[in-house]
Amino acid sequence: MMKRALISVYNKKNLFSFAKGLIDLGWEIISTGGTAKDLKAEGLKIIEIEEITKFPEILDGRVKTLNPYIHAGLLYKRDEEEHLETIKTLNINSIDMVVNNLYPFEETIKNPNSTQEEIIENIDIGGPSMIRAAAKNYKFVTAIVDPEDYEKVLDELNKKGDISLKTREYLACKVFSYTAYYDALISSYFNKLTKIKFPEKLTLALNRAQELRYGENPHQEAVLYKEVFDLPGSISSGKQLHGKQLSFNNFNDANGALEILKEFEEATVVAVKHTNPCGIGSGKNLIEAYKKAYECDKVSIFGGIIAVNREIDADVAEMINSIFIEVVMAPSFTEEALKILTQKKNIRLIQIDDINKNNYNALDYKKILGGLLVQDRNELLLKDEYKVVTKKQPTREEMEDLLFAWKAAKNIKSNGIIIAKDKATVGIGLGEVNRIWAAEKAIERGGYKVKGSVAASDGFFPFSDCVKALAEAGVTAIIQPGGSIRDEESIKEADKYGIAMVYTGIRHFKH
């Protein structure tokens, strides 16, 4: 019996040579609407879908393949007598292959000019039904959704006269991934339409962007998946200008650097190691900002990642090139800067056009074993106006440094303490299980530069010990959330040492 393939596609890449290849091998082609018209225009012999369904295409194409003659031809088991008898009695012909890719729902929602009616009309119904039916019955039927698989299928047919079960199983797997992705896009669209932030059933639509050399460690495999919509100002939307491929750790650290950078409007440089900052500096220009970030920790910045929010010129490039840096991210580079930086083969240079963008209305995801934690992205810096709770008021300069330190403290791992002076981090203590340890580490790393500085804590002080340690090291003002049952003890300690303390009323844990 002659084999039959049903072809109905939106994406017609490589279609005509594939269809001709099937016909040359003795296959009959069934087709619908525009696909049939295009195949005929190429001189190919086609069976119109109406000849099979014995029913016209209706409702502006909404109903054309939803028909027992189609689905029974796809779904019956070729090795089951009862199915064979039913097919014979009802005079239904076998359909042995479906070639289908769906209406362009993704392209439609990406187009800002698309109307809601256009979006709804691009929800495919018949296509998913056909390819799912074919994939379910992959033991007997071939389902193809990706034009890249045409060559593989034709090659097997030419060499073996049939398509192997292993290949049909592989193609079926692609079908169900494809329809799951398609439905996830539709689900996401309707969640946004109906303003449902945390749906009862969560589906995510992501595209595999690239394979990575390995994960956090060489024995771990890794890939990068990208969201459907490019996120302006993100590492995944950046354009790599130079250097070898980014690694798993590069992507993760780069994202950490960008999250911090987005807090600052002035010319700012953020240096990161293992997603944590080893130096942050803001200034009148990028040179000043870079020197401040570098001076915070001249050792740890080596082999780190740098993110800046101004164009990199030749002077800054020379400073960067004086040490080993893994990745540099900037909104742009001058030609002279690129000439200098590209002298080093392995440095990665990433241009991120909207690097300052920080208004995403996005969710934050954290994978745990057996589940996924989902929360709002932490975009809020201060809930209300800050409040001075000590006798001493901070000076204008101290207040500027306190807010600078508060932005930095928001983006380091808890428990975290930032010591800063002249809009530059001086000492950073982070990721400690005890807040006093974080304070002690920040003081130790800041050394003599702590005198005359300010400090920020991502969470409240449960005891007055941190205030005592910071004050005795030379800190003149502190910013913290407040909210501890022992707040009064910390306030009294600050008053004892004659330093200012500001409460923000909002904490910034980062785990």
From TrEMBL:
<dbReference type="InterPro" id="IPR011607">
    <property type="entry name" value="MGS-like_dom"/>
</dbReference>
<dbReference type="InterPro" id="IPR036914">
    <property type="entry name" value="MGS-like_dom_sf"/>
</dbReference>
<keyword id="KW-0511">Multifunctional enzyme</keyword>
<dbReference type="GO" id="GO:0004643">
    <property type="term" value="F:phosphoribosylaminoimidazolecarboxamide formyltransferase activity"/>
</dbReference>
<dbReference type="Pfam" id="PF01808">
    <property type="entry name" value="AICARFT_IMPCHas"/>
</dbReference>
<keyword id="KW-0658">Purine biosynthesis</keyword>
<dbReference type="InterPro" id="IPR024051">
    <property type="entry name" value="AICAR_Tfase_dup_dom_sf"/>
</dbReference>
<dbReference type="GO" id="GO:0006189">
    <property type="term" value="P:'de novo' IMP biosynthetic process"/>
</dbReference>
<dbReference type="GO" id="GO:0005829">
    <property type="term" value="C:cytosol"/>
</dbReference>
<comment type="pathway">
    <text>Purine metabolism; IMP biosynthesis via de novo pathway; IMP from 5-formamido-1-(5-phospho-D-ribosyl)imidazole-4-carboxamide: step 1/1.</text>
</comment>
<dbReference type="InterPro" id="IPR002695">
    <property type="entry name" value="PurH-like"/>
</dbReference>
<protein>
    <recommendedName>
        <fullName>Bifunctional purine biosynthesis protein PurH</fullName>
        <ecNumber>2.1.2.3</ecNumber>
        <ecNumber>3.5.4.10</ecNumber>
    </recommendedName>
</protein>
<dbReference type="InterPro" id="IPR016193">
    <property type="entry name" value="Cytidine_deaminase-like"/>
</dbReference>
<dbReference type="GO" id="GO:0003937">
    <property type="term" value="F:IMP cyclohydrolase activity"/>
</dbReference>
<keyword id="KW-0808">Transferase</keyword>
<comment type="pathway">
    <text>Purine metabolism; IMP biosynthesis via de novo pathway; 5-formamido-1-(5-phospho-D-ribosyl)imidazole-4-carboxamide from 5-amino-1-(5-phospho-D-ribosyl)imidazole-4-carboxamide (10-formyl THF route): step 1/1.</text>
</comment>
<comment type="similarity">
    <text>Belongs to the PurH family.</text>
</comment>
<dbReference type="Pfam" id="PF02142">
    <property type="entry name" value="MGS"/>
</dbReference>
<feature type="domain" description="MGS-like">
    <location>
        <begin position="1"/>
        <end position="145"/>
    </location>
</feature>
<keyword id="KW-0378">Hydrolase</keyword>
